[in-house]
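Lecture notes, unit on protein representations.

Consider one protein chain, 217 amino acids long.
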Amino acid sequence: MTIHTDTAAVLDVLGPNGERWCKGWGDWNEPTCTETCLFGAIRRCSPVPGDAYLIAEVAKLLGWGTTWNDDEDTTWADVRARIDAGLDVTDADLEHTYGPQWREIVAMVRRAAVLTEREARELAAARAAGRAAIGAAAIAAARAAIGAAAGAVAMAAAMAAAMSAGAVAMAAAMAAAMSAGAVATRHLIGQHGYTQKHYDTLLAPWRQVIGFDEASA
């Protein structure tokens, strides 16, 4: 499942000499901007919606993420060297970043990137109902488990992907994020006060609106 990014296409966006490369990623979701950071270029060149957000979290862990792009010491020569070395993300990279449920996380992030307005509304409503059902203490326990593992990066990728889908409210993006965080930390059920009920409640909005096949997970 290697996520491939065409480096020639990225160079077409940035310019062979970095003519259109910039620091900062305020252009991240602005396709008409004439200058962009490395990750804006990757986003524009990713054929599968959501993949740029998966790549961003992997790259952050490997030391060439958005912060690296924006560092005052990073030059175009550094960025060009990174591009020339390849931008592909391997299965091993994905597992290292997102943990043992990485395949499910990839699928969820890709799906979050193409949420419809109706799905977003339904996710937001389902999240509101779920928060009332699970309670503050349970949410705190779930967040402790998520913070202890790959859940945090899964949440970040899912939220960014959902927000890129268009008119997606923050509540819907949070529902996608918490569902991805739950899946990423499924192997931690029974630790940190994190229970099967917490997991099921956090994943409930996604299961209800989008669907999630536990048997194949």
